[in-house]
Amino acid sequence: MEKTRDAIAGGLSGLFKGKQAVASDQGFDELEDNLIMSDIGVEASARIVEKLRTQAVKGQVNPTENLRSLLQEELVNLLRPAVSPLDLADRVASPWVVLMVGVNGAGKTTTAAKLANHSQNGE
Prior knowledge:
55% of the residues lie in helices and 0% in strands. It is mainly α. The protein folds into 2 domains: 2-79, Four Helix Bundle (Hemerythrin (Met), subunit A), CATH 1.20.120.140; 88-120, no CATH class. It is elongated.
């Protein structure tokens, strides 16, 4: 997460300097590119930028200050935990598969080991 945070912060710092820096088509395109390069993902980046663009067009946000806080809010919502956590107790009786996806160094192997341990202990 540190790499992602640093990439987002570094790439976005220049976008929010001018008064109309982000609230233009070029600014939104640059924001989307920065989010994608920061491992946010193409679909999530497009959704976030479209929501920001809609808010800016409606005049509901100040081009610089509120877009930054709205972007932060959208990123936090994206990272919120799942609504229903994984319940291992229901899956003990039969074989089952868990697909682990993430960038290098995100903790997939560690999480898989923890899930295996919880499963073996009946937790």
